[in-house]
Prior knowledge:
Order of helices and strands: EHEEHE
Largest sheet: 4 strands, antiparallel
CATH topology: Alpha-Beta Plaits
Shape: globular
Structural class: alpha+beta
Mean pLDDT: 94
Low-confidence stretches: none
Distance between the termini: 10 Å
Helix content: 25-40%
Number of strands: 4
Radius of gyration: 11 Å
Number of domains: 1
CATH class: Alpha Beta
Amino acid sequence: MDINDVVIHVNESLGPQARHELEDHMRAIDGVIAPRFNDRQTHLMIVAYNSDRTRMGTLLDEVRRQGYTAQACGGMSV
Length: 78
């Protein structure tokens, strides 16, 4: 298993409920291990995922499918 982390910048300002719902949508993607918003910078979501099962583009597509504007800020292989 190849685990990667990606930081996704969500342009819109999301409240706690919207962040929780987006994390749930991300968690439903096969290969996503741990989606979580940064507590201090709530526009940044860090997603740990298995790159053998999903791709960074799939993660961005899901955020956008939920109606948000987003960009990948960076990623890291573990």
